[in-house]
Design a protein that fits this description.
This protein is mainly α. Helix content is about 75%, strand content about 0%. Strand 1 and strand 2 form a beta hairpin. Helix 5 runs antiparallel to helix 16 and helix 14 packs across helix 15. The radius of gyration is 21 Å and the shape is globular. About 0% of the residues have low confidence.
Amino acid sequence: MSTERAEGRTVIQNIFLISVIFLIYVRPYEEVSFLESFQLTRIFVVLALVGCLLNSFYRRYHSESIIRENTVKWFIALQIISVISVFFSIWSSNSLDRILSTNTKIVIVFFILSSLIYSRKQLLLFLNTIYVSVSLFSIRVIVAYQQGQYVIDSETKRIAGIGTLGSDDPNDIALVLSMTVPIGLFFVLKSSGKLKVFYFALLCIIFVALAATGSRGGLLGLVMGVTVFFGLLYRKQKIKFLSVMLVLFISLITFLPGAYKERFMSMLDTSEYSYSDDQYGRINIWRRSVAALMQRPIGYGMGNSIIAEGKQKEREGTSGKWMVVHNTFLQIALELGIIGLFVYLMFLYSSFRNGLFVLRESIENLDKEYVLLSCGLVAGLSAFMISGIFLSQAYYWNTYIFIALILGLKRTTMISTNEKD
C-alpha cells in the first residue's frame, strides 16, 4: 500500500496522537482546572490505540512488523522483566502499582508512536508538535517563575509547582528541555526566512525556561546534546565544529544567570554537600546504592529503589530521609537487577545504532534534512544519557518518545529506499 493511501487512513490516529503529545507536555489542565476531571490524556491515548489496532497498522503499511526491530525486542524484554520483578519485589503492591499507573501508559504511547510513523511528513508533524508543545510549556515555566512560583535551593531560585510529563521536579523539567534543544537546532537549521526566526525564538524561550530550573544535570545534558549535534553535523569539519562550539560557549557564559553558573560550578567543589554529606550527598547515595545492589543482584522490584537505598542506610547505621538514587542506571539496576540493567543498556544502544544508521544513509543519499534530523534525535538521546547519570529517569516518558521517534526515522528511511528501488 502506498504512503499516500496510508496517510489518508491514519489522519484520525494522527489527530489523537497529536492531542496526547500536547496534553502530556503542556498539561493545560494545570491552568484550567476543570479540564482535569475529563481525563483527556487517558481518553486520547485509548482512542489512538484503538485506531491503530482496528487498522492493523503495522501489518498493512510496512513490509515488516515493528516487533522485528531490535530496539522493540529489547523494549519488550525490559517490560517482561518489569512484570517479573513483581514476584521477587520487596514490596509487590508498590511494583504492581508502578507498572499499572506509569509503565502501561509509556508502553502504549511507545508502540503507537513506533507503529504510526510511516512518512517523512508525518514524522515532521509529530516533531513539530513536540517542539511547539515544549515551547508552550516553557512559557508556562517563565510566567510562573516571574510570578514568584519558585523555591530557594542553595541561593538559586528554582521553578516549583508546575510540571510536564507527569512530574513537577525541576530536574525532570530540565531534562525535557535539554533533550528538546537539539530538535530546535534541527528546525532552525532546516528552515529559512520568517520560519527560521520563529523556530529560533522558540529555542530561546526553551533556554530561558531551562535557566529557571536551576538544574545542574539539565545543563550538563544541554551541553552534551549540543556538542553531539554539531559533532555529528561537522564530523569532517573540525575547524568549523570548534568555531561553532566556541561561539556557543561564550554565549552560554554570557547569558546564563550568575546564580545558575555558581550552582553549576559547585559540582567541582569537593566540600559541596553532594560530596561531603553522608546522609543526602549524591556520592554517598550512589555508594549505598551499589552496596545494596551487591546485597541483592536480582533487584528489589520496580519502584523500590528508594527503599533499597534506605535499607542500606539503616544497615550502615546512618539516619535521615530515604532518598532517590539520583542515577537512572543505578535506579534500573536496583529495581530490575543486573540483568535488567543489561537489557536497558542494550535498548538504548540499539536506539543509537538506529540513529547513526540513518545518518550514514542520509549522508550517502545527500539528504540534508534527514542528516540534520538524525543528528538532532541522536543528540537529544545523548542529552538524556549524561543527565541520567545525575537524575532518576528510568521511567520518564520523554526518553521512550525519543526512541520511538528514532524508530520512525529509521522506518521512513527504509520505506523511502524501498520505493526508490
